[in-house]
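It is worth pausing here to work through a concrete case rather than discussing structure prediction in the abstract. The textbook approach is simple: state the sequence, then state the predicted structure, then interpret. We follow exactly that order.
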Amino acid sequence: MKKLFDNKLFAKKLWKSLLALSLISVSGVTLSEDIELYVSDAVKEAGKKIKVLIILDNSGSMNGLHTVSADFDPLETYEAEGSAHAYNDSATYFNIGGADSSSTIPDSPSDARRFLAEINSCETSKISLETYGFYTGHIREYGYSGNTGSWKELPENNGLNIEVLDCEEDITNADDTNIDSLPIGYPIDGEGSKQNPVYHTTTIADAKQDWTGNYVTLYTAKYLRWYHGQSVVKKQSQN
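Step two, the predicted structure:
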């Protein structure tokens, strides 16, 4: 009888020991942090501990509503209110080396950083301009140094003398569409002369320009009227 009691006591102690070990193992696993799910492998390998501070603001100011501009809508006309931002719809405006967040986005209808929209042979840009109001890419104009023609970066402050314009993305996309007054093809350097210029080639392999340099952002007049707050429908937004 005593032997049976000792066996039961031993079994009970063994079960408690196993339970304690399992709890220690589980607690060891739960020491990992939830944020590890969002940490890259590179950070994990470096052995750096991520520090995250979460602040919840439940003050009274967070219950307020603020008036913000509605999103740009390509179907809206955004008529100019006064002359300050009466941008010309026949022109495309541009900014070199920046995008929408740049402080140098054109802010006046008289800004010389513009060219006639009808000379734009960058076919890739047209859908973006029509849908979003802007486009950013490597864009060049055709010009001459002596009697040799080539595709050059746009002037930073004045586009009024630009006559022929195209972009790298048309080559990347194998899109040889150009404006109606020009034959189809891709930008090419050093062909023709001032009297008989040749801007494009139908052989994409011959389009070997160096497209490194500043990016150019194009804007429609409609987008600039929206951006500068002209005829913009307001909507309520909560903090």
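Step three, interpretation. The CA atoms of residues 87 and 109 lie 5 Å apart. The radius of gyration is 32 Å.
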